[in-house]
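Q: My labmate handed me this sequence with no annotations at all. I'd like to see what the chain might look like in three dimensions before we decide whether it's worth expressing. Could you predict it?
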Amino acid sequence: MKFPPVAYLVGSLLFAVSSTVSQPVFGAVNLLVSIETHNTPSKAASQIPPDSKESLEVTLADGFISVKSVQATTIYDFKTRRRIVLDNASSTSIEYSLYDTVGFRTIEFQNREKQRSALAAAKITSVSMSTVDNEHLLSIQSPSPAKIDEAIKQDDLVFSSNDRQFARWSRKGYKVIGADAERFAKFLRYNLGGHPTVLGKLATGNVIPDRLIFTFTETGWTSSRSISITALRQVDSNTIDLSPNAMRRAAGVPGNLDDVLDQAASLNPEEIERAKPLNQESVTNAFHSGKGLDAMLELLEWTLMTGQKMPPFSAEQLTMLRGDPSVQKLMTSLAAKTKEQFLEAVNTLVGLRSQAPKKSYVLKIFEANDRIRLGEFDASKRLFMEVLQNNLLLAGVYKDLGDLYFIQYDTFRAWRCWDIGRRFAPQFGSFAAVNQFEKTLAAQHPEYF
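A: Here is what I predict for the chain of 449 residues:
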């Protein structure tokens, strides 16, 4: 959770962001953040991540947050709910959805809670699978949140549960307005984690502590993250200009699905609109030539590009389609509901390729979906990639591919696919479930937005 030279004028703090982030900001806060991570293995640990140290330059502004590391600058744009990642070396950018983070954490939290319940039913105890640890690690509140105790020790605020410390920070630090404290908590939420109750306490203060310690219990080790804040200052304006940073372009790597997604993301509105009209002449010629399967695949491809219903068939066309054995085999395969039927459908769809060579890639869409139902995820991805290499504008394919990534917990790619598909066909009914899921996430976890 599973990127200029940026024109970064430290002395002036107005985010003059080009096409993606375009709102001016006044009275932003600029600070240097150092994060040291130390991992301690548990008795059962076999391998743990190495200790690390990271230095970040963070800007907390109205509507978005910028986090600059040595490799990349990430802009969290809360008005468009996008995350723009700028690669410092290549001067290129790539966009993600803010929903991918909270989406992943939500399903991961649910998954961990199911595992915890299963372990409890088997009378197997695991500290790392406790609800409060899951809340703290993923910054997701459970319906029945654990009580977090708050105490003052040596001029520090200390937060714990069942005598285990989760967070500690100095009561001294930098006085800021409440909005800046809330933005700082949001920065930690995205980049570190933290129990919602703990981050809520931090967000409602008027101080950004100069030092903080967060302790996370992982499976196999405990991670202690020490955060030091230095050089905080109020600034009038800051400039992060995205205009010199072109969208990351496809590298032309064969077999790389991310490369295909980069190609699709780079298409401009004019290219998208030019491809949408139905090639009625091609459909008519297919019917006149007695090629019912070609005509049907042409129409199916168009509906998967636009989300629109097929135009009505004439009586003559319907008679041809009903009497065409290849079309009837296709229709039967599309109606598969059981494992045995999915296996048979895959064989049928593969066999039909030779009967419609120009549109055989459309058959691969349905085959890929059947292979998903059979658990053949890698084969399905390869098929979807072959389809998109023939037609980048198949919005329905991005929906199916995004669903596949989602069930594999790769929410970054899932939302990339869904966003591309919705850009190509905003009214496509298949995306209604995604739209509703985003509304639910925003309503249940407003702190992420």
